Amino acid sequence: MLRQKGIDSNWKWDDVNRIIQDDRRVKVFKTIGERKNAFSEYQFEVRQQEKREAREIKQRRRENFTEMLREVHLTKREKINFLSKFYVISKKLQGDIRFKMVDDREREELFQDCGE
Question: Comparing 115 with 6, which gets the higher pLDDT?
Fold first, then answer.
């Protein structure tokens, strides 16, 4: 019911209550306390799902960035090794969307891992 109403994890109880109070499905819960508890559980589940999705997105971006570095490594002109300089390689990769999807600190960390 809460999902169908477009309620997400950032909503406050008072706002949710105003929207659901006229819904017949809310009558399953006998007291306001039961309704609040159900809402809290819903918020917890939604937040957990949001965190999982954010981790998955971040992991995919890291994998795509690493794949991009491997592609550069496989070309004959550019080999990435422990002597490679991040700023030199990064200038050549700035136009790639996979480069932009990872933050600066993480880019350099992934680059160092690839060069080892």
Answer: 6
6 found inside a domain: no
pLDDT of residue 36 exceeding 90, the answer is yes
Contact status, residue 68 vs residue 96, Cβ threshold 8 Å = yes
Does residue 96 lie in a domain region? yes
What count of residues does the chain have?
A: 116
Backbone angles phi, psi at 96, to 5 degrees: -80, 130
Mean pLDDT of 73-98: 69
Flag whether 85 is in a domain.
yes
| Euclidean distance between CA atoms 82 and 113, whole angstroms | 9
Range of the domain at 103: 13-115
From the list 89, 94, 92, the residue with the least C-alpha distance to 114 is 89
Task: Tell me how many domains the chain contains.
Answer: 1
Say how far apart CA 36 and CA 15 lie, in whole Å: 12
